[in-house]
TrEMBL record:
Gene3D superfamilies named in the record: 1.10.287.130, Histidine kinase-like ATPase, C-terminal domain (3.30.565.10), PAS domain (3.30.450.20)
Name listed for the protein in its UniProt record: histidine kinase
Tree of life domain: Bacteria
Domain Histidine kinase stretches: 292-507
GO molecular function per UniProt: phosphorelay sensor kinase activity
InterPro entries associated with the record: HATPase_C_sf, HATPase_dom, His_kinase_dom, HisK_dim/P_dom, HisK_dim/P_sf, PAC, PAS, PAS-assoc_C
Reaction catalysis annotation: ATP + protein L-histidine = ADP + protein N-phospho-L-histidine
UniProt KW keywords: Kinase, Membrane, Phosphoprotein, Transferase, Two-component regulatory system
PAC domain: residues covered: 90-142
EC number per UniProt: 2.7.13.3
Keyword Cytoplasm: no
Residue span(s) of domain PAS: 14-87, 161-232
SUPFAM superfamilies recorded: ATPase domain of HSP90 chaperone/DNA topoisomerase II/histidine kinase, Homodimeric domain of signal transducing histidine kinase, PYP-like sensor domain (PAS domain)
Natural source organism: Epilithonimonas zeae
Length: 513
């Protein structure tokens, strides 16, 4: 018994050493599960997160191809596909994209992992960022195609032209500031001066945080400029609210970039400030209206629904088929209106930060089975197939997760009117459950995929053909995010869509079957 415990401790120690070794590697390392549909990633080390810019929970469950984004015509993708299908090693140099969209060149080694029976169970991938080498090769090609001296001369001429830089700053209809490395204002355009009711004499040559009565000494902005910008990381769409003298409270979107020039313009900071105060007020009024209107509509609708239910119970036995059909249609439309109002109320709660989670342990397999069964029994013309079993217990609000699944299934049915098959797949991926809902309908364009989870967003062609408010997917994403999971879509126009979400696993229960 003591010997067994000693062996277990040694195995646990070996596992920790292996894990530490993987996380200490400068190369990005991933492991995919060949036994699961689409070969999803089940492990990634810290270097992989650092190279790609994605966090651990944004990586787990994805296929490696998500790093190529829309750059799908690369022949290396076919090489990788064939290697995985045929179970052999492969080395490629491929264009990948970080979370912020930055291109980087990836030297990728893929190798199969086999069990004692010789079966491929996993694939391991090792990647290195070779962007510097590839960029050097590209620069060498470009140097052969043109004269380097002309490029350098022309570039320096533009960089050293103060008139050129000033003309850009003055013509942009947005508040712009140029600072030196000590945060002293070198230039302020007319839009900034008029918007914030200041003069050029009281602005240019002053340190930003000391302007006027220190009105720009905003702690959040100060931390960004003094801590983030020196690392060459840009500030993008950072929202700042502040009370200014004479002009009152302003809500601003701040974008800031550190620009490294040669000559007299070395180490400049460009700050663009967009006043979104009116936009925020309009959004708030719209949210307030939706909240009040939804609550006001809820009360009479509840009464109408109750009266319809009474009519359905007391209708005469000899009532005509037309009467029964009309009454059923009224009931269905009332339920549809009730669902829309509930979605508006959910949106209002999310926007105000009052989304409520009642977390309890629940079995995700049972929840999925019940949801799919309800749709199949509801008389839908679509056949919903459920595959996979996780034996996983999730700590969450089962009603809200059910709402997410119901919404994804309803959308799958709505947007695949011709193809009548919907596939639902569940898998255990690392310490997450991954659920995928796939339809084979109209699909979603790349441009729409980037906005599909935005509140009230609906594609133009969908608006004309299908009814809806454009808030269902927004609510779904907020619910999944509140459960520490991720929700994403994979689609091509005319080839259907797959909506995937992950949820962290609380525990695995014993399979009694």
């Amino acid at each position: 018994m003591n010997q067994s415990n000693h062996i277990n401790r040694n195995e646990s120690l070996d596992y920790e050493i292996y894990l530490q070794a993987l996380n200490s590697s400068n190369s990005g390392i991933i492991i995919t599960d060949n036994a699961i549909l689409d070969n999803p990633i089940i492990y990634c080390n810290k270097a992989f997160e650092n190279i790609t810019g994605y966090s651990h929970n944004e990586i787990i469950g994805h296929n490696c191809r998500f790093l190529q984004a829309q750059d799908r015509s690369q022949p290396q993708r076919q090489q990788l596909k064939e290697a995985i299908e045929n179970g052999y090693e492969c080395r490629v140099e491929i264009r990948n994209y970080k979370k912020d969209g930055t291109l980087f060149w990836n030297e990728l080694f893929v190798s199969p992992v086999k069990n004692n029976a010789g079966e491929i169970t996993h694939f391991i991938g090792v990647q290195n960022d070779i962007s510097e080498r590839k960029n050097a090769e590209i620069e060498l090609i470009e140097e052969k195609a043109s004269t380097e001296k002309k490029i350098v001369a022309r570039t320096k001429e533009l960089q050293d032209s103060e008139a050129f830089l000033s003309s850009i700053i003055q013509t942009v209809r947005e508040s712009l500031l140029v600072l030196d490395s000590n945060y002293r204002v070198l230039s302020a355009n007319k839009h900034f001066l008029s918007s914030f009711k200041v003069t050029e004499a009281n602005t240019v040559g002053k340190i930003l945080f000391e302007l006027g009565n220190h009105q720009w000494d905003i702690e959040a902005l100060k931390q960004l400029l003094t801590k983030i910008l020196p690392t060459n990381n840009p500030v993008i769409d950072f929202e700042v609210s502040h009370d200014f003298p004479y002009i009152g409270r302003k809500v601003m979107l701040v974008n800031a970039y550190r620009v490294e020039f040669e000559g007299q313009f070395k180490d400049r900071i460009l700050i663009a400030i967009e006043d979104i105060t009116d936009q925020k007020e309009i959004e708030q009024r719209k949210d307030d209206f939706l909240s009040v209107a939804s609550h006001e509509l809820k009360t009479p609708l509840t009464s109408i629904k109750g009266l319809i239910q009474i009519l359905q119970r007391v209708k005469p036995e000899n009532s005509s088929e037309k009467f029964n059909t009309i009454l059923d249609k009224i009931a269905n439309q009332t339920d549809r209106l009730n669902l829309l109002i509930n979605q508006l109320l959910d949106t209002s709660k999310i926007q105000s930060g009052h989304i409520e989670l009642h977390k309890e342990p629940f079995e995700i397999d049972k929840l999925l089975n019940d949801a799919v069964s309800n749709f199949n029994y509801a008389g839908s013309n679509h056949q919903i197939n459920l595959r996979g079993k996780t034996n996983a217990v999730i700590l969450g609000d089962d009603l809200q997760i059910t709402q997410v699944i119901n919404n994804l299934l309803s959308n799958a049915i709505k947007y695949s009117p011709e193809d009548k098959v919907i596939d639902v797949q569940s898998d255990k991926v690392s310490n997450y459950v991954k659920v995928s809902v796939t339809d084979y309908g109209i699909g979603i364009s790349h441009n729409d995929q980037a906005k599909i989870f935005d509140r009230f967003y609906r594609a133009q062609d969908i608006q004309q053909k299908f009814a809806g408010l454009g808030i269902g997917l927004y609510i779904c994403q907020q619910i999944i995010t509140a459960h520490d999971g991720t929700l994403w879509v994979e689609s091509e126009e005319g080839r259907g869509a797959t909506f995937n979400f992950t949820l962290p696993i609380m525990k695995i229960y014993d399979n009694e079957e």
